[in-house]
Amino acid sequence: MSEFERAVAHEFGPRAGAILTDLVLTGVGDRTANEALEAGVPARDVWLAVCEEMDVPPERRYGVGRLEPRRR
């Protein structure tokens, strides 16, 4: 969860809270991010659904939120 929270804060800044509570995500059953997380949807799936809905470029979807990104 902490990686998810860092990723959302990093990508969306001051809008992060509103995105988690107000944006309805089709990728997780037409729920908000917070609703999906409360329903047990894995944080990674919620993050990818947020990215898809908000048109986050693929290069910014993976590894964000990790304290030390994975090496390739």
From TrEMBL:
This is Signal transduction histidine kinase. It comes from the Bacteria. It holds the Pfam family DUF3046. InterPro entries: DUF3046. The lineage of its organism: Bacteria, Bacillati, Actinomycetota, Actinomycetes, Micrococcales. It comes from Microbacterium immunditiarum.
